[in-house]
């Protein structure tokens, strides 16, 4: 039994039950849902407590899912490492946008740019303007602090659909999260499942409909591509930047991309990928999400500053931001790459736990890619 207690005077009870096998051959987790005092229902005065509860719950469920299936957290991607990384990225941009301290952006040489009116370097994705637009469109009065909590909740739950099918309540009122029966991370439809589970959890937690609607929207905006590239939805660029690019800055598992490949091949053994794009993802993807180089520069600066404040090392992120590695664009099967990768690590007496640095990591990646192509496993 794993028990947590959220912070906040209004929390009456909070218990997370252990993960157990169900009759269908899968796994479920019984939950004790947060309960607020009557006077706080719908007032969102205890959103901090809800955030604490759902963050702990998410970590517990992702960790339990991996543990039940004998999987090291470093051999997965959509797990606690990723959620914490995205949360840090989101917090960095939120703080920059709504803090009162002016910031200016340095260029690549670390020199402050004297052209102060090129763009708003403090809020490069215009979170304040988007919050105003959201409120005008929905007739709400969500504050910056409430937006912050909504973002934290959305980030905590945005990948729960990768491991879970649904949230259900039995005749006794017991709440359970039902996991995928085969123990496989599933990307297809994950955002919709995450959104549905989040809605039920927040409704049970007495969170107001206005906040719930915003959280649902934020979760759906973590899909890989924009629904309309010409006109991204409110907070659409923000959520994708923190999810896809922020992960590279703040993920404490430096080899998380191997975990993503393992998830991909587990879901579909015939999956193919482009090594050049995949292993240079932050460099390749960022301009697709944010076309304005000045805005990208501002985001890079904010992320770097927040990472320094968190006392995180800079080597890994510097590699992912600025370095590109020539691997060729010819697609290969993920399962063939992983087989070659494991063979190379084994021959060198290594595993993911004792790889020393990114340079060594990329050397073995290149060897695995070359081995696949030499054995005519590319397609």
Strand content of the residues, in percent?
5-15%
> What is the tally of helical segments?
14
Q: Helicity, in percent?
A: 40-55%
Low-confidence stretches: 1-26, 34-43, 102-119, 312-322
Number of strands: 6
- What class do helices, strands and sheet pairing give? alpha+beta
> H/E series, N to C?
EEHHHHEEHHHHEHHHHEHH
Sheet with the most strands: spatial strand order: 1-2-4-3
Over the alpha carbons, how many angstroms does the gyration radius reach? 21 Å
Mean pLDDT comes to: 80
- Biggest sheet statistics: 4 strands, antiparallel
Q: Report the end-to-end length measured between terminal Cα atoms.
A: 48 Å
Please tell me what the overall shape is: globular
Primary descriptors:
two-stranded antiparallel sheet; 4-stranded antiparallel β-sheet; alpha+beta; 14 helices; disordered N terminus
Question: What would you note in describing this structure?
Answer:
The chain has a domain at 15-253. With 379 residues, the chain is an alpha+beta fold. The radius of gyration is 21 Å and the shape is globular. The model is unreliable at 1-26, 34-43, 102-119 and 312-322 (pLDDT under 50). The N and C termini lie far apart (48 Å). It has a four-stranded antiparallel beta sheet. It has a two-stranded antiparallel sheet with strand order 5-6. It contains 14 helices and six strands. β3 (164-169) and β4 (175-179) form a beta hairpin.
């Amino acid at each position: 039994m794993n028990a947590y207690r959220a912070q906040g005077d209004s929390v009456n009870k909070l218990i997370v039950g252990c993960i157990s096998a169900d009759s269908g051959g899968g796994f479920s987790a019984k939950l004790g849902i947060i309960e607020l005092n009557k006077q706080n229902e719908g007032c969102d005065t205890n959103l901090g407590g809800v955030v604490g509860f759902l963050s702990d719950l998410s970590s517990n469920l992702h960790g339990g899912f991996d543990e039940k299936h004998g999987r090291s957290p470093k051999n997965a991607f959509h797990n606690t490492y990723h959620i914490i990384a995205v949360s840090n990225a989101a917090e960095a941009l939120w703080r920059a946008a709504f803090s009162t301290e002016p910031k200016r952006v340095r260029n690549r040489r670390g020199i402050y740019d004297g052209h102060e009116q090129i763009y708003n370097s403090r809020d490069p994705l215009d979170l304040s303007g988007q919050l105003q637009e959201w409120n005008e469109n929905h007739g709400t009065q969500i504050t910056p602090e409430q937006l912050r909590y909504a973002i934290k909740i959305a980030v905590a739950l945005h990948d729960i659909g990768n491991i879970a099918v649904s949230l259900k309540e039995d005749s006794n009122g017991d709440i359970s999260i039902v996991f995928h029966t085969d123990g496989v991370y599933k990307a297809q439809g994950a955002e919709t499942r995450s959104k549905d589970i989040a809605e039920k959890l927040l409704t049970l937690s007495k969170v107001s409909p206005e906040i719930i609607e915003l959280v649902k929207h934020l979760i759906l905006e973590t899909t890989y591509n924009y629904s309309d590239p010409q006109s991204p939805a409110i907070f659409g660029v923000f959520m994708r930047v923190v999810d896809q690019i922020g992960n590279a800055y703040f993920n404490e598992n430096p080899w998380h991309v191997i975990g993503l490949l393992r998830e991909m091949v587990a879901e579909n053994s015939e999956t193919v990928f482009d090594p050049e794009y995949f292993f240079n993802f932050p460099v390749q993807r960022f301009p697709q999400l944010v076309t304005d180089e000045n805005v990208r520069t501002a985001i890079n600066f904010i992320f770097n500053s927040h990472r320094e404040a968190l006392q995180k090392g800079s080597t890994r992120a510097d590699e992912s931001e600025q370095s590109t590695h020539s691997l060729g664009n010819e697609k290969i099967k993920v399962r063939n790459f992983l087989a070659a990768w494991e063979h190379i690590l084994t021959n060198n007496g290594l595993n993911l736990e004792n790889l020393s640095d990114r340079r060594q990591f990329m050397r073995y990646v290149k060897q695995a890619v070359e081995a696949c192509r030499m054995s005519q496993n590319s397609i």
